[in-house]
Amino acid sequence: MDAQGRGRAENVDPADQWVLNPNTGEYELRLSRSAPQPPVPGPRRPATRTQAPGARAPGRGAPGRAAPGREAPGREAPGREAPGRDVPPPRRRRGTPEEPPPGRRGHRPPKKKSRAKKVLVWTGGTMAFVVVAAAATGYFYLKHLEGNVQSTDVGDAGSKGFSKDEAFNILLIGTDKRTGKGNEGYGDKGSVGHADTNILLHVSKDRTNATALSIPRDLVIDVPDCPTKQEDGSTKVIPGTENERFNVSLGQSGRDPGCTMRTVEAITGIHVDHFMMADFNAVKTLTTAVGGVDVCVAHAVNDKNSHLKLPAGKSTVEGEQALAFVRTRHSWGNEGDLDRIKVQQQFLSSLMRKMSSGDTLTNPTKLYKLAEAATKSLTVDTGIHSLNTLKDVALELKKVPTKNITFLTVPVRDNPADGATHKTVLLQEDASAKVFNAIKNDVSFTEVKKQQQQAAKDAQAAKLKGTRSAASAVRVRVLNGGAPGGSAQRTLEWLQNEQGVTKSENAGNAPANVARTTLEYAPDQADQARELAALMGLPGSAMKPGKSVTNSQGLPTMTLTLGPDFDKPGTPLTAPTKAPDVDKTTADEVKCAK
Is pTM beyond 0.70 here? Predict the structure, then answer.
């Protein structure tokens, strides 16, 4: 029998069964039976009673103990009882109603405890019990949640840890694997779990904004070679393939989420720090946990493929119906994946609003269900597997206002090889490059901090103002400090043959790699530096006033160190200060699917 049941059976307050052990300093649950009580008329309290945690005895002793040499009122010494009389209630505070006449402690006439007093004692005791129990079980519950989360070691495809002081990129993957109860009829029956839904989430360094970039599953790309960790600890390299749909970057030939991360970086040039992956169950359990998600459709829907049935206008969906909503594509637009992506973005925006609403955050039951659903549905990389790290990620995401979370899709075009079927898509090279460059340089797609951004732009431009020398007068040596192999030589040839910078030379590899491309120059070389920056499209942040070095002819020269941000000669490195104008929506917008 537990404490509650034992207490009810013996008419003992369950909270009063928690006793402070003076040897350990801890509260312990005492379930030993009281000695038999002689029958007395009317209601009575048990003769043997222990102090509730945190309660103070009426004497001058420490909490939970009577004063030395006497027993507290309403409490007998161990092994003693007072047959034939009621145990008096605790002493009232002075100044309260019904103050008894002065007398020796423990010898007051018995008084019937009021209903209000009983409620207060019960509530106080119960709260003490809850606090002690929570302290004992909280750690184990957090460990339980952490045990729900699955993890995959993606090696050097991602980052080893999580920094709360930097911008970060997380790849969100929804698989079409038919795992979990009730999912047998969904997706591809023989699927090994492809990357069906893919969103690259970029969170800005200052946490003022975030960008959720959807990558179409039918985008034709090249999947790079991918090292994968095997169960025995060995590494197996999955060979890359060309002209594949993006979704086969996961599952096919044993590819893990690290392969999808590497594919995203190969396409966008953006390093992916971590991944989070979920299957069909995530949509069902998360939407049920928050009590449903509000959606809107411009016209009534009766989709035979997804079995979604909704009236025109607003509805609330959860569980199976929510999953049907995000899987539907034949009821939207041109019935392709691009229109389904827009609807999924609207759904995720609504889910974000619901999860961050006061109705959810102030409801313990919903929070409990949400924590269970989220962790049971999740697979992450080992860099963020611990619950503390996941908590840090969530808290950093919480700092971003929903109005500054932008949803957009990689700019694509129809694949001419498909003819009229429009099965796959290709990158729009120029438009997509601008989107990738903006994300890579932490530029917001929403209008935030305009004044600060303009001030930074003006500061960079000021570095490039002033007179410029002729290209033929520029002396520079070129080093490779982390750019693609052969970049120094290609840049040298481009400068000499196409730009007229004939006084340039290849100095090989830099002593150490750099984070970004830099141009170091002495004060009297500022005009040469401005000319070279203009030719190469260097941003003001790349300009590094310092000192000159001596070239092979014994003349003072500047040093250009090419970093990982360098692509190829002629491609400007100037960091964008404004995001490109693309079709987008924000998480605070309510739109109807159509």
Answer: no
